[in-house]
Amino acid sequence: xxxxxAILTGGGPAPGMNTVVGSVAKTFIEKGYRVIGLHAGYSGLxxxxxxxxxxxYALADSIxxxxxxxxxxxxxxxxDKDFEENFNLSFFVDNNVKLLVTVGGDDTASTxxxxxxFLESKKYPIANIHVPKTIDNDLPLPQGTPTFGYQxxxxxxxxIGRAVYCDARTSGNWxxxxxxxxxxxxxxxxxxSACHYPMIVIPEMFNKTExxxxxxxxxxxxxxxxxxxxxxDYGVAMISEGxxxxxxxxxxxxxxxxxxxxxxxxxxxxxxxxAHIFNEMLEKKLKELGIKVKSRPVEIGYEVRCQDPIAYxxxxxSQLGMGVYKLFxxxxxxxxxxxxxxxxVSPLYLKDLxxxxxxxxxxxxxxxxxxxxxxxxxxxxxxxxPADYQAAKKYVADPEEYDFRKxxxx
Length: 410
Known about the structure:
Blueprint: E1 4-9, H1 17-30, E2 34-38, E3 52-54, H2 57-63, H3 80-86, H4 89-94, E4 97-104, H5 106-121, E5 127-132, H6 150-171, E6 174-179, H7 186-194, E7 199-201, H8 213-229, E8 235-240, H9 243-246, H10 249-255, H11 274-289, E9 295-300, H12 302-305, H13 311-329, E10 335-339, E11 345-349, H14 350-353, H15 371-379, H16 389-392, H17 404-407
Parallel strand pairs: 1-2, 1-4, 4-5, 5-10, 6-8, 6-9, 7-8
Antiparallel strand pairs: 2-3, 10-11
C-alpha cells in the first residue's frame, strides 16, 4: 500500500490555510505519497468514521491562493477520555499513514503536542508536524517571526481602517474600532498604527496597572480632548478585544456583557460586538462630561479571517508547506515547522514552548519596550499630557484623570 500523510486544519481560519495545505499536498504527491485531507479538525481522529478525502495535485493547485479553508475546520478539543477510548488508530493503520500534519493556532498546537506525546507513549510509529497559524500573531515563534495569516489580516483590516478614518475626517465624527486578538494586541496595534489612529488600546499597555472599564474609556476621552485642543474634531480609537480577557469578572459585569464560553474555556467574544460595547460606554462618559462628540462603532474581525492571502503569506505559507516535507524527511516529529526570516527551515519543538505546569503554549504578547511600539505611542497617538492641563480644563475639571501616562501608571 502506498504510504500516506494526513492533514487537518483546526481552530478558526486565517489567510494562507489553503496555501499551506496546497503546498504540503503538492510536495508530498510529487514525492509519491498519498495525501488524505481530514475535515472537521481533530474530531476525525476520535471518530470511527472520519470525513476524509484524497487530495489531488490538481485540487491543491486550484486552492493554494484562495482564502478560507478547503478542509472544514473545527474547534473540537479531545478529552483524556477521548484519547484513551476513542483515538482512531485504525485510520492510521488502514491507510498506512506515516505523518499527521496539523495546521492551527495555540489551541491546535497544544492538542498536537498532546497527540505527539500520546503516540510516543503508545509507541505508534506516526510522525506529527504542526504548522502554526493565527491572525492574532500570538504564538511564541523566535526572532519576531509572524504567524502565517497575520500579515494578510493586518493588510485587509487596514483597508477597512483607512476607510473608517477617512469617514471620520469627512463627517467630523469619532469612530470606535474593535479588532480581534484573544490575549495579545498585535492585530489591533498593527492596524491602528498603519492607519495613524490617535488612540490604540491593547491589553499589554496595562503592564503596570489593572485593566478597568473606566481606564479604557478614559484613554479614549484623553485622545478626544487632545484632538479638540489641536483643532481636530474627529478621530478613531482602536481597542483590542483582548482587553476583555484581562478584565476581572466584576469589571466585565460593569460592561453589561454576559459571555458564553467555548470548549477551550475562552469567552466567545465573536458573539458580541466589542465595538458597540466600547462605544456605548464612551457615549455615556462623554454625556456625563458634557462633551459633544458623535461616535460610531466598527468591528474588524471575521471580515479579515478568510481574505485571500497577500504575497507575503503566499510565499511564507508555501515555504512552511514545503518545510513540512523537509522536516519529515529528516525524521523530525513532535514539532512545529519554523521558517526563519532568512528562509531557513528548522523544527521548533512543542515541548520546549509549553508551560511545564499546564502543558499549554503561552501566547506571545506585544513587547511594550520595543522601539517599534514606543515610537507609535510617543509620536502618533494623541493624548493629554501635563502640558495640556490648563487648556484641557475647558472640557474637564480634572485633566489629570485623563493623562495617558497617569492612567497607565507609566
